[in-house]
Input
Amino acid sequence: MDTKRFSKNDSGFICKNCEREVPPLGYTSRNHCPYCLWSLHIDQNPGDRACECIGRMYPIAVTPHAKKGFVITHRCEKCGEVSNNKSASDDDLSLLISYTNPDNLPKK
Ligand SMILES: [Zn+2]
Ligand SMILES: [Zn+2]
Output
């Protein structure tokens, strides 16, 4: 078991929404669950883990992007902050595509 700590904040986590274990992404800081696309309000700036809100952030829009694949717009359940995040390489593609239709987004 490799216990070496990464200098960047790319650690795995347990998703607070679907409760699946999410492994580290490897190439950048992961900021949302690849299975359900929910996020956690832990960053002030991407990857800094400096936010103390820790509210769950749910997807309110998914927009196809020419360069980034998809842009997922999250809103924090707790404080209402909205942020845009690009999709990761192992995000659930069929879920991303289904969420580009607003009717398929989680109802709030
Ligand atoms: Zn999840
Ligand atoms: Zn928040």
